[in-house]
Amino acid sequence: MHLASATLGDLLAGIAAKTPAPGGGAAACVGGALAASLASMVVSYSLGRKNLSEHQPALERVAAALEAARAEFLSLAEEDAHAYGALNEVMRLPEGDPRRPRDLAPLTRAAAEAPARCAEASAALLRLMRELPGITNRHLRSDLAGAAALAEGAARAARWNVVVNAPGLDVVAAGEGARLLESVGRTVAEARELAAGVERACE
After folding, report:
1. Which of 90, 160, 170, 199 gives a 20 to 30 Å CA spacing to 128?
2. Model pLDDT for residues 121-133, shown as the tens digit of each residue
3. In the chain, what are the domains?
4. 203 and 142 in contact (C-beta within 8 Å)?
């Protein structure tokens, strides 16, 4: 399934199916894409408004960044689904299969790094959103707050996919899994703080 071009129904059915991918990591990325899309709607309703004319350059910059963020999340969703699907196949091989020692380490890294990058992209998205409460259409504050909640959720969900894959990174290099988890933990903490700031500003 090509996630970016799938219908919403097909995407949800694909995630719900008894298959390893798309799974939790891809779902987190799709959540990030939804957050970026909802924030883009807020900006779209703010561009061209006379009472926000002084903010148009900033809004145009953020609009372009949000579009790029949406594309990045979709790309990460595809990457995560491919990485975990491939890892799952290798893990099911017999112990003596030569593909296991050859492919297990790089595929484990890919399966852990894709959701880690999703968490980072979610925090970056929230940094963009933090600029918006004072320069966007006030009638869409609930949508902006909802977008922030979705972005925080994407970061938190992505972290769990790092949690499940990080132990396997120790076959690549001792301590690599713990270092990645620590980094993602800091990213999620930042995402929570940023989301709370956006929501407070929207009250």
Report:
1. 160
2. 999 999 999 999 9
3. 20-202 (1.20.120.680)
4. no
